[in-house]
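Homework help board

Subject: predicted structure for assignment chain

Our instructor gave us this sequence and asked us to write out the predicted structure in token form, then describe one feature. I got the tokens but I'm not sure how to describe them. Can anyone check?
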Amino acid sequence: MTEKSSNDKNPEPINHLMKAMNDFFEHRPVKGFLENLDELFISSPFSNHLPVELKETDSKYIIQAKLPGIKKEQIEIDVLHQYITITVIHHETITTENEHQELIQHQDTMRRASRTIPLTKAIDTKNVKATYENGLLTVSINKLRGKKVDIT
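My token output:
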């Protein structure tokens, strides 16, 4: 009679567990759930991001956002001590009537995309200027200058 040493491991239970886990994630409903979860983050509204470019000089920040097809009235800019949030709101109403001008279909949709840009220095929230021209939003923000202290 031979005894197995404690170093001899039987890999079969591990293989069985791994196969069971693979089967669990490969078959519905879990696979379908994971695919739907991926689609949720790939498609809107979470994929609606605003591409921005941040430039910094000694005295100011310049933020540019490309927003083609957006009207100036759809843009909101919120200013905090060290943050700028740019929000684009698109509201659309579609109404369909028949030949007797009776309402057949009415659909309201609203989409919102926003981007918060953190800044490294405190800003002058009273002197923020924004322009919107040919689909390009440019926000110019003055930096606050702190008091310099001489060391004695």
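Reply (TA_rk): Your tokens look well-formed. For the description, you could write something like this. The longest strand covers residues 103-118. That's the kind of observation they're looking for.
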